[in-house]
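Take the subject:
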Amino acid sequence: MHAQQHEPAARSASSSWERTLDRCIKSIVSIKATRVKCLDTEIPGAFSATGFVVDAERGLILSNRHVVSVSPIIAQAVLCNYEEIDLQPIYRDPIHDFGFLKYDPAQLRFLDVPAIPLYPQGARVGQEIRVVGNDAGEKLSILSGTLARLDRQAPEYGTGEYNDFNTFYYQAASGTSAGSSGSPVLDLAGRAIALNAGGATRSSSSYYLPLHRVQRALACLQQEIPIPRGTLQMEMVYRSFDELKQLGLASYMEQRLRQMLTDGIIASEGLLVVKSVLPEGPAADKCEPGDILLSGNGDIIASFIDFEALLDSHVDKPIQLVFSRAGHLIQVDLRVQDMHALVPHKYVEFGGGVVHDLSYQMAHSYGLSLRDPGVYVASSGYILGTAYCVRRSVIRAVNNQPVNHLADFIRIVQQLPHGARVPIRYYSLNRAKKEKIMLLHVDRRWHPFHLVTRQETGLWDYVTLPSPNGSTGTSAESASTDKCPNEDALTASVRQAGPMTAQEPMHQVAECLVSIDCYPPFIIDGLQTTHAFGAGLVVSLDPPMIVCDRDAVPVAVCDISVTFRNAVTVDAHVLFLHPFYNYAILAFDIAGVTRAGYRVQAATLSNKPLDKNDPVHYVGLGGDSMPVIKNTYVAGTRRIRTKECKVPRYRAVNVEVAKTGEPLNGQGGVLCNAKGAVQAFWMNFSIDDDDDEPRAVMGGLANALWVPMVEAFRTGNKDAQVVYGLEAECWSMQLAHARLMQLPDHWMDRFSSQASPHVLYILGFTNPSSACTRLLQVGDLVLEINGKLIASVNDLHQFDTLAEIDMVVFRDGQEQRLRVPLTPFDGQETTRVIGWQGMYIQDAYQAAREQVRERVPEGVYVSCCLFGSPAQLGVQVGVWITEIDQVRVPTLDAFLDVVTQLRDDDHVEDEDTSGELSHLTLEDNPLNDASRPDSVENSAKWLLARPTAALAAAATLPTKKTHVRVKYVTRSNVTHVSMLRLDWHYWPTWQINKDTTNLLGWTLKTFPGH
């Protein structure tokens, strides 16, 4: 009987909720946004959330602060009918988790959107609610719940993260998740009584922000007046009467408060207590944790609402507070500070990083003073990264000058010329006040120097800051540390593994070794690190040149520092990168070393090859860059076996190296004879292991493989500064296996007489589109090249000056004689990078071409997509862009020409540009566009008919170009098409290009927005 009585009531409630949701659903939007930059507690990236319309006439949408964001964002709202509109972030509260976005109501074409009224006073325990929003990435979810608490403390999301405080939160068991942030918490009447803000991951609890302060902020926006927000840099916490008694609240005072609660004068069963006070803030030295707040300016303060109302109405004005401290009444006079001034509203882009004034959020999280706090590193980027000044560091001084605020940082950095090396003092917030001093290398080649300021519209404007002209070069002052007292200091620093016997030649060799640090500014060519290092060898003084391995200098677009004897540092740049043999040749600034008072000498190079069991002396650099000398012997030669990396990056192929009788660790060095003549360069080879983790193996690269190129640069022989190579990877096969493949006996006899009785075969191709792939096949046995028997992969270097070679291969039981073209390599590799919509665009490099399944696409290669950019959602990394808006872009020049000429959409008649497509001729519209077809048969005809004159005229009007069509091809030769949303403001097009006419060696050009 009771169940029958409850059924009509349940159906009525369900029906009421259905009507409420039908009415409110039009006002709730799904928000798609990308956070553009690191700022304060936020990091860049794409995310989804929810908002709801609170003022349809003005186009105001309410959502969370962590959605509206402190940092620049690009956002769109998707309505229930899948109509999309642009949003502007116009307000975010300094601490509470709410903010407002704005849209243009005129943009709405197909839907009338009513506003959802705010009703903060409607929340009560036990109330049934609905949370409607974009839950967990879904378009729309409706979750039910019941309010369980109205006095929960604000949720804590972790130190250094955004945290709300000085407010209550509501709690309910509704189980919201990612994407539902900003959802309205609705009552049965369709009013918003709270704002969904977060939830507990280990339970089904959700946390909602009360709307009292939200309602006040909305009223200010509607009246077009500022929203004042005051602070004492003090966090308060609510404590009930029993806890207040323990803190010393007098019994008579508790009795009076309870009486006022009974009489309805106050509404809470407790008071606010000071939880924390920031040092040197308005309340410092006057208020203490544990103080019970009783009144402000003569009125009882019994809630967060009362407390914030007092502060917000007295910004930059004095107030008087009365506290109970351990049973004693304390009266303090304080001056309220403007809280908006403590939220980052400007930042500096320096060397690809972002710095700004320390924010209230960070200071509150770590208990720091906001008086002359230093500047906060939101993103280290390239230059700050070289000094290991990473995110969540605070810079206190640059070039021995104090940095208290952002203006100090700008002033100091503006005075630093390119190439300057200056001290930087900073500490990490994870270890507050544990300061470090590092060297900051100012490099102005790769990134602009910008001041970015937030406008009232929510857009952040860029201003290019001036920098000093010219550069320091490399001088003794800017170079590095103190000069060694005398030349004997080097000898004293050498660590000897055995007894000192006839080591003087080895000491001379040690003087030719240098430490190399390489800092690539961009993620290109599959780079996995922002700092590479290793040992180098001075091989020439006229011109000054150094040889090192490509584990130390992997790319040409980089900043290279060379350190001599741990005492003086100078700049260097790439002359040549060998495509196969893992070495690089650098030019360095010898004048910088001599100005510091040091003598530079070049190593003596031997032309005698190493043989098995030859005694050698190893001279290298240890992990601390100090010289190490060991006596050892050549155990033999071994092929360097590398494999294609998971992320395509450089790997050595077709090379054998000397191996020694004992392990030689460290950064690398040389193998030399007793007279100190270098016979091989001991280098690191970067490989991927079976778990696709990078590691290094070491070996000695014979002089014959690298000295000829050094001589070409030393003598200035331009023709010899190009190497020709076979774009195929060769491996060795035992003669027993070759016999099983029916290799004739006379070839078996010839190979058996070699020191290394093996036969080479084609393992694969490093470029599937190479000309050699049309002649050679995987599995071919390589017998002769130009009449010479090929028994080792190192034999291939004999032909690296030839454009073509005559090969004898054994295939399918038959000998074949082939004229095979070789590919020229100029050793420059990537010297041009284009930045477009958050992508790094370059010519495809060797490792990328190698991993293509069939043929290398004709297009430009995407080596990186930055978080928070349009590219993050639109294009994959490691693909070839072949078309932009159906225009082919086979080269970087073609690509740059297309993307810099993209304009607002103009009406263009359909054309058949391919000669293969058949375009439909539109018929006249038999119906008025306002009329609908009366049958299914007429629907297609109506849809495909020519538009009426009015609609045709509207279609010819130019519209803002918001998207571009991008066609790209993967390594598997699979074609995709993506629509990329354009953002010219935060992601302008730029290009970095090697330029020998520029004093800096490179030219950075930014193209104007479209």
